[in-house]
């Protein structure tokens, strides 16, 4: 069932949630008016404010993404891309940032993974928050423009230490070979659209084994798909955004979990805490993709809001295909992935209330 556009959903849902508030929930939690509370960390109708996030939203200093899973669930049944043309969409989409943030890749390093595949971890800084957002890049042809650009006064050793080199580092190497960087950039522009996943940080699902959601196995599966030969040819990127708990932060997400144990779903729990059902934005992802030379992509997602939001306000990045993100437990008949009563409810809520493009038969 297609749910209403995201911009209409919160208010409508608020009414039904608050008219049926259980007696143990304080009426103080209810919003004071139809508009978002000006004191609130988030406003449903305004673009994300350009200021330092409150302390409660700052994620732990570094939450490393889980290493990719090492088994192939079903190599003969990889999800097939579905062509999309978001420019023809008549539905009201998600709220978009007006201008793209500025991003800057400070450093990258080669990371060999436990599966044997290799990726380059790119650490980004930006002008809208003080978090270290990451791009996990599969394949050597996708390169960051801001990383490769020469920096004043730097030596060849400086360049190699911050990862602005081509090929591989080895003991005794003395040159980052700037000319080859330019050649690589030319090759990149001729390539087909790479597979892209925009992943939002989930400390509970990726690090401390939570079975309330399938975020950890989604991250593993995205990394696995980027390494299969058909995708390895185009290269792949996982943009890892530090917007924990759909943007409400870890502390608030833990409160939401307690509200879920009290009988609310993930959607209602956010509203009871006076947050939007989904407080994320994707302007940083768009800007990071552009910095990586990716102006069209095949996007691995079921989330219709993400599909349009990642393109940016002026369709700076075009999504040519949507590749479904099928839960690993469904795909493998429960042999891999997350299985629990909670994750089933989490997935049902995504479909029924967030309008995710996923059905039980997949
Ligand atoms: N507030 C809140 N956030 C949650 C909950 N469960 C998971 N999350 C967060 O949801 C985010 C994961 O969503 P994603 O997998 O990136 O994206 P999605 O909207 O589910 O869409 P897909 O691309 O189809 O997976 C992470 O930031 C998690 O921390 C929950 O119960 N409440």
Automatic annotation (TrEMBL):
Pfam families: GTP_cyclohydro2 (PF00925). Residues 1-95 are annotated as: Disordered. Keywords: GTP-binding, Hydrolase, Nucleotide-binding, Riboflavin biosynthesis. GO terms for molecular function: GTP binding; GTP cyclohydrolase II activity. Its EC number is 3.5.4.25. Residues 191-324 form the GTP cyclohydrolase II domain. This is GTP cyclohydrolase II. It comes from Rhizodiscina lignyota.
């Amino acid at each position: 069932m297609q749910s209403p556009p995201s911009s209409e959903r919160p208010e409508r849902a608020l009414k039904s949630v608050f008219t049926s508030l259980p007696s143990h929930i304080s009426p103080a939690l209810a919003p004071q008016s139809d508009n978002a509370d000006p004191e609130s960390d988030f406003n449903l109708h305004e673009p994300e404010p350009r200021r330092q996030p409150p302390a409660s939203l700052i994620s732990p200093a570094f939450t490393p993404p889980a290493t990719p899973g090492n088994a192939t669930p079903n190599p003969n049944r990889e999800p097939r891309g579905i062509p999309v043309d978001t420019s023809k969409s008549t539905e009201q989409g998600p709220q978009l940032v007006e201008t793209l943030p500025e991003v800057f890749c400070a450093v990258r390093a080669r990371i060999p993974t436990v599966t044997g595949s290799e990726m380059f971890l790119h650490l980004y800084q930006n002008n809208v928050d003080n978090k270290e957002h990451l791009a996990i890049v599969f394949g050597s042809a996708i390169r960051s423009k801001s990383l490769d650009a020469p920096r004043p006064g730097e030596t060849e050793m400086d360049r190699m230490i911050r990862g602005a080199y081509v090929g591989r580092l080895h003991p005794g190497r003395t040159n980052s070979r700037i000319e080859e960087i330019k050649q690589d950039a030319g090759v990149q522009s001729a390539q087909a659209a790479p597979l892209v996943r925009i992943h939002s940080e989930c400390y509970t699902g990726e690090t401390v084994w939570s079975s309330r959601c399938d975020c950890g196995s989604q991250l593993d599966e995205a990394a696995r798909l980027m390494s299969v030969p058909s995708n390895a040819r185009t290269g792949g990127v996982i943009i890892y955004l530090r917007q924990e708990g759909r943007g409400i932060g870890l502390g608030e997400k833990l409160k939401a979990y307690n509200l879920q144990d009290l009988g609310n779903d993930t959607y209602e729990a956010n509203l009871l805490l006076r947050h939007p059902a989904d407080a994320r934005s994707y302007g940083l992802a768009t800007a990071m993709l552009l910095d990586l030379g990716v102006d069209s992509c095949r996007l691995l997602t079921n989330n219709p809001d993400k599909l349009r939001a990642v393109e940016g306000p002026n369709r700076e990045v075009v999504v040519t295909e949507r590749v479904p993100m099928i839960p690993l437990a469904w795909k493998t008949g429960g042999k891999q992935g997350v299985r629990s009563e909670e994750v089933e409810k989490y997935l049902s809520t995504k479909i029924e209330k967030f309008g995710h493009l996923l059905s039980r038969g997949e």
